[in-house]
Amino acid sequence: MNTWLRHHLYAIHIAARRLLGTPFSSLTNIIVIALVLTLPLLASAMLVSMQPIARNISVNPAISLFMKEATTIEQTRAVASQLKNEHSQSILTLEVVDKADALQSLKASESWSDALKVLPQNPLPHSIIITLSDEASPTEKAEELAEVWSKLPDVDVLQFDSAWVQKLEAILSFIRIVLGLLAAGVALIVITTIFNTVRMQALVQRDEIAVARLVGATESFVRRPFLYFGAITGLTAGLLAVVLTTITLGFLNQAITLLSNSYGIPFSVTLPSASWLALTIALVMLIAATAARWSVTRHSHF
Questions:
Q1: I want to staple 14 with a disulfide (CB 3.0 to 4.6 A). Which of 168, 223, 225, 248 is the partner?
Q2: CB 65 within 8 A of CB 158
Q3: Among residues of the chain, what percentage have pLDDT more than 90?
Q4: What's the whole-model pTM score?
Q5: Which protein family is it in (predicted)?
Q6: CATH of domain 62-161
């Protein structure tokens, strides 16, 4: 155990010395990786910050059933009870609105009170307001229910606006796709950067590697410093990317706050959770170490 720990500490020491031995090259690689990693971090911050807003905009769509003029309130309640029994899993809440109550609500509004005074009778129908459950929230399921309910004999008009649901799903889906593409781009740049750096180091230190092999060093002993070199580079770049993202969000939130306050909707973009950031940095370290191993394996056979 002591020998294993000593070998790894030695590899970390050698990797750190090689990083510090070429400060300009190492700093350039770290900055390039950090700048590229900042982009998916910003995209993920936007995605995480938009999810609470999406939940507050009533993710559960509502369907309004307006009954025919000849339909009584008792018949309306009977239809509501039938829908509740037949589609209990798809319905979150159901409310029957009497047309007399609806008229009184409109009369209480100053913008409608004068116009309603000249009407000889109540023009409003009885209605049923249905809020769909999470099970029926996907657009396809909601549209299917709306089509079925619109064919009920007592229903005159069905109102269901699914456009906002489709737009919200499209926006979130777009951000997820962009986030995936950015993550793939980051992985490619990390692999390319670390691969070329380790290749150059392996060629420069070929004599040192050859002597180590002559005195009995194993391939794992030879490659281990290069793996730690990649992991340390990934760790430093990941931490720098978090700092750059935090600074960028600070400037971005200043503009967002002014805009959101003008609409009366407080909103700001925040970083993902610490566990998510730690997982991202660990993934970058793993990719960098893998690229370093691949490079030293290919270019240390001499």
A1: 225
A2: yes
A3: 7
A4: 0.62
A5: Belongs to the ABC-4 integral membrane protein family. FtsX subfamily.
A6: 3.30.70.3040
